[in-house]
């Protein structure tokens, strides 16, 4: 797998938009930490099993889509502003990724909502 942080995050986003959970998880470290957007302060989701449980309903919905509006890369960090859409709704979001050894080890997610 490509260790370039931008390539990793781009591949992950492509897998998410293809609704391919196995491919999306392949970009994630086994012990990846996701700080979700659960109000009020987020919720830590750690590891593939927990990520799969959180993401399966999202990946199963063919109307979900993530459109990247801006990407900033600095070292092992990738920051993306994006629009997350489903059915007749959407939120604007910022995701802050940390990449190590070609895998996402941390994803901090924030939304306007």
**Terminus-to-terminus distance:** 35 Å
Order of helices and strands: HHEEHEEEE
Query: What gyration radius follows from the Cα positions, in whole Å?
Result: 13 Å
The percentage of residues in β strands lies in over 45%
Tally of strands: 6
Strand order of the largest sheet: 2-1-6-5-4-3
Question: Would you kindly provide a written description of the structure presented here, covering whatever features stand out?
Answer:
The protein is built from 3 helices and 6 strands. It has helices at 5-17, 21-26, 48-60; strands at 28-35, 44-46, 65-74, 77-86, 89-100, 103-112. The protein is globular. The protein has a single domain (5-112), classed as Nuclear Transport Factor 2, Chain: A, CATH 3.10.450.50. Strand 1 (28-35) and strand 2 (44-46) form a beta hairpin. It is α+β, with helices and mostly antiparallel strands. The protein has a 6-stranded mixed sheet with strand order 2-1-6-5-4-3. 28% of the residues lie in helices and 47% in strands.
Layout of SSEs?
Blueprint: H1 5-17, H2 21-26, E1 28-35, E2 44-46, H3 48-60, E3 65-74, E4 77-86, E5 89-100, E6 103-112
Quick overview of this protein structure:
This protein has helices spanning 5-17, 21-26, 48-60; strands at 28-35, 44-46, 65-74, 77-86, 89-100, 103-112.
What are the main properties of this structure?
113 residues, Nuclear Transport Factor 2, Chain: A, 6-stranded mixed beta sheet, 3 helices
């Amino acid at each position: 797998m490509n260790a370039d942080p931008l390539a990793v995050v781009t591949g992950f986003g492509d897998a998410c938009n293809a609704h391919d959970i196995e491919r999306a998880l392949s970009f994630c470290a086994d012990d990846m930490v996701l700080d979700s957007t659960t109000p009020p302060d987020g919720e830590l989701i750690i590891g593939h099993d927990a990520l799969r449980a959180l993401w399966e309903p999202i990946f199963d919905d063919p109307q979900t889509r993530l459109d990247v509006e801006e990407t900033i890369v600095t070292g092992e960090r990738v920051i993306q502003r994006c629009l997350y859409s489903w059915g007749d709704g959407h939120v604007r979001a910022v995701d802050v990724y940390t990449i190590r050894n070609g895998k996402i080890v941390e994803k901090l997610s924030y939304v306007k909502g």
